[in-house]
């Protein structure tokens, strides 16, 4: 039986303020919950319905588990079509970005990306292409927003997401900085280094002026049709794909 206090706590975690206050975030869906159980994250508790119980598999004795009725689960679910499994996971400690970890590879930098679905897709894309770090501006949407977590389909469990002052960080590194801009060199003609940062901008405004001044090479995806712009998650996928293609040639 769910108490009012438990319902209040879980539903409050949809808000960043309360995620920070309680040090917890929500993971929902059978696949995503199983990914976090198998990761380095600490899963504090799991709530599940009878139908979903067998699909979750073995739950460690260190994780509190609660079986709920369908009606009870509806009260805490963030999804329109709940899968019957929800976990409360401890927020990780914010790790400092070590430039040594960014050497000899490419990593993504996000300048005020706002849409949870976009960030979630970018995290999932990063894992697909073997990118381990995503460095976000303070104004980028929270990676532990339930909509972001859901969109990553478990990839968040394995990708390092950092929130820092981008201007300060980029200014302090000697890594090559590539920026996705409309007036850049074609992505297919760009001379890519063996390492670097790929900067992607805000959905409506692109990369901010203060960050543009730090970019070494402006890069664009050639437009053939009449579309005004590309979705930032789609553009990030194209950048990652081209960089990996060059490395495999």
From TrEMBL:
The Gene Ontology biological process annotation of the record reads: methylation
Q: Which domain of life is it from?
A: Bacteria
Entries under InterPro entries matching the protein: Alpha/beta_knot_MTases (IPR029028), MRM3-like_sub_bind (IPR053888), Ribosomal_eL30-like_sf (IPR029064), rRNA_Methyltransferase (IPR051259), SpoU_MeTrfase (IPR001537), SpoU_subst-bd (IPR013123), tRNA_m1G_MTases_N (IPR029026)
Q: Name one GO molecular function term.
A: methyltransferase activity
* Classification via Pfam families: MRM3-like_sub_bind, SpoU_methylase
Q: Which residues form the RNA 2-O ribose methyltransferase substrate binding domain?
A: 26-95
Which SUPFAM superfamilies is this protein grouped with? alpha/beta knot, L30e-like
CDD domains attached to this UniProt entry = SpoU-like_RNA-MTase (cd18109)
Keyword terms, alphabetized: Methyltransferase, Transferase
TM helices/strands, residue ranges: none
Q: Which Gene3D superfamilies match?
A: 3.30.1330.30, 3.40.1280.10
- Tell me which positions the record assigns to the signal sequence: none
Q: Which family does it belong to?
A: Belongs to the class IV-like SAM-binding methyltransferase superfamily. RNA methyltransferase TrmH family.
| PANTHER family referenced in this protein's UniProt entry, alphabetically | RRNA METHYLTRANSFERASE 3, RRNA METHYLTRANSFERASE 3, MITOCHONDRIAL
Q: What name does this protein carry?
A: RNA methyltransferase
Instruction: List the source organism.
Output: Sphingobacterium ginsenosidimutans
Lineage of source species = Bacteria, Pseudomonadati, Bacteroidota, Sphingobacteriia, Sphingobacteriales
